[in-house]
Design goal:
Elements (H helix, E strand, L loop, with lengths): L1 H15 L5 E5 L11 E7 L17 E7 L2 E7 L10 H4 L1 H8 L4 E10 L9 E8 L28 H14 L4 E7 L8 H10 L3 E3 L3 H9 L4 E10 L10 H24 L2
Parallel strand pairs: 1-4, 1-5, 5-9, 6-7, 7-8
Antiparallel strand pairs: 2-3, 3-4, 5-8, 6-9
Helix pairs in contact: 1-3, 4-7
Bound molecules: hypoxanthine.
Length: 270
């Protein structure tokens, strides 16, 4: 694995020629965020040695290097999901590569179903904590000491100082952002009513099919994380519970300007 990371890192480094300050992972329907980036290089995933290839609609599948908020950043337009059939180690491979390319902070976004009854479609939720145990832990297997310790501490996976900074940015802009716990499921099915109820009882405010494996990998490597869920549907309501991928993409698109503003200002402050 270390050899694969080194080869992918060397390939990208040769193209971008400099160290990015932050890495950004964009969730479903959130790819037009990249319009805010002063793009210097776009690298299709298929060109990068050992990178998996994204197959989901709404994920364009390229690594973008450029300037955002006065900082050099790497943005993943499209991520890899466990439900696509990748091993957890493949899902998190790009996070490891970005760390070796020099990023100092990781920002992630996702589309998620709200299970907290006070949430509305289109809300942004800063993730304060997560529940991982419904998806496989990406650190299962031989531990690479160069990446991190065998038993990583997980008391503060989402850095409080980054959440506080983002909250100040949101308040200034007049956004009513929520905060809460994200639970990862494998998907690709959306939850049944009983499953929405279950994850809510387990302590989650939002449920989605990504992010947690990436965050575990980042924390393993000592990389500070900030993550936001865009609430694209509400699973907990008792009435019509039909959720489509199109609805999720549409809701994400509408919330995107707020997310973009917060990420941009936060990157500027890093
Ligand atoms: N459940 C799981 N993943 C999701 C959802 C959901 O309701 N909405 C968007 N991604």
């Amino acid at each position: 694995m270390m050899k694969k990371i080194a080869e992918a890192t060397a390939y990208i480094k040769n193209i971008i020629g400099a160290e990015p300050q932050a890495g950004i992972v964009l969730g479903s329907g959130l790819g037009s965020f990249t319009k805010e980036i002063k793009i210097e290089h776009e690298i299709p995933y298929g060109d990068i040695p050992h990178f998996p290839i994204s197959t989901v609609e709404g994920h364009s599948g390229k690594l973008i290097y450029g300037e955002l908020g006065g900082k050099k950043i790497l943005a993943m337009a499209g991520r890899f999901h466990y439900y696509e059939g990748y091993a957890p180690q493949d899902v998190v491979f790009p996070i490891r590569v970005m760390k070796f390319l020099g990023i100092k902070t990781l920002l992630l976004s996702n589309a998620a179903g709200g299970t907290n009854p006070s949430f509305k479609v289109g809300d942004l939720m800063f993730i304060t904590d997560h529940i991982s145990f419904l998806t496989p832990n990406p650190l299962i297997g031989k531990n690479e000491k160069e990446l991190g310790t065998r038993f990583p501490d997980m008391t503060e996976p989402y850095k409080k100082d980054l959440i506080a900074k983002a909250k100040t940015i949101a308040d200034k802009a007049g956004y009513d952002v929520k905060q809460g716990v994200y639970i990862a499921v494998t998907g690709p099915t959306f939850e049944t009513k009983a499953e929405y109820k279950m994850v809510s009882i387990l302590g989650a405010d939002a449920v989605g099919m990504s992010t947690v494996q990436e965050v575990i990998t980042a924390v393993h490597m000592g990389l500070p994380v900030f993550a936001v869920s865009v609430i694209t549907d509400l699973g907990i309501r008792e009435d019509e519970n039909v959720i489509t991928h199109e609805e999720v993409l549409q809701a994400a698109k509408e919330a995107e300007p707020k997310l973009t503003h917060i990420f941009k200002e936060l990157v500027a402050q890093l």
